[in-house]
Design goal:
Elements lengths: L3 E5 L6 E2 L3 H14 L4 H5 L9 H12 L3 H24 L6 E2 L3 H9 L4 E6 L4 H9 L10 E2 L7 H16 L8 E5 L2 H10 L2 E5 L6 H6 L4 E3 L5 H7 L3
Parallel strand pairs: 1-4, 1-6, 4-5, 6-7, 7-8
Antiparallel strand pairs: 2-3
Length: 234
């Protein structure tokens, strides 16, 4: 049996951190660049499905910070962001949760010898790990692709495929690579690499936009484990 690689997006697919990432980015911009009105500028930026570097560039544009200044201060911005993110995640918030069906599905997948699990996310790796740690989900994912590898989501998926193929000791055929995500950008990154695109409505994208992206399968959430496994050809 040909092994299958299943790559999961993080925000809106695996977990909902109740805006912790957005608030942490706003706090980092405020701290590093002294922008007291950053929330208003950030409100004009789409976060879902984008990589952290793209979001940062968009916030910079909306807030009037020149990109050369972003590049110069990027290490400070990233360090401040991670500190703020961990602080945000340490605060109790009843809205924070794993998405429906995620834990039972992951438990089934990790128990299978013909499946390898990975991440494909616009988060930098340390940010993704911080978010998953709150819910005890890091144990399912040995690796993946992150925006700390590349700012483009299609490249992130390609890197995840290459990295986890090397780890497994064989190259997963593209049609045996599943990308599970909650935005049309997740579908697009799968398509760009010839992977199977499985979309879920558990995030913030309307169903009609997901349908327009033409994923191979579309679910309201991941609670119908049998149907999701069938879409993964497992």
């Amino acid at each position: 049996m040909t092994p299958t690689l299943v790559l999961f997006d993080v925000d809106g697919t695996l977990v909902n951190t109740a805006g912790a990432g957005r608030r942490a980015l706003e706090r980092s911009f405020q701290s590093v660049f002294g922008l007291d009105d950053i929330a208003e500028a950030a409100s004009r930026v789409r976060f879902d499905g984008k990589s952290d570097p793209t979001i940062i560039a968009d916030i910079a544009r909306e807030s009037g910070v020149a990109l050369p200044e972003i590049e110069r201060r990027y290490p400070d911005l990233q360090r401040t962001y991670l500190d703020a993110l961990r602080d945000e995640l340490s605060r109790p918030d009843p809205r924070r949760r794993t998405m429906p069906g995620v834990l039972p599905l992951l438990e089934i997948l990790i128990a299978r010898t013909d499946v390898v699990l990975g991440l494909v996310t616009g988060n930098i790796e340390e940010g993704a790990r911080a978010k998953l740690e709150v819910f005890g989900l890091n144990r399912f994912f040995a690796g993946g692709g992150f925006s700390s590898d590349h700012p483009d989501r299609a490249e992130i998926a390609r890197i995840a495929h290459e990295r986890l193929s090397r780890r497994a000791g064989h190259r997963f055929p593209p049609r045996q690579v599943m990308v599970v995500g909650d935005t049309e950008l997740d579908v697009a990154c799968a398509r760009a690499n010839g992977f199977v695109a499985i979309a879920v409505e558990s995030g913030w994208i309307p169903r009609e936009r997901l349908e327009a992206a033409e994923p191979d399968a579309l679910f309201a959430d991941l609670t119908d484990t049998a149907a999701v496994l069938a879409a993964m050809r497992l």
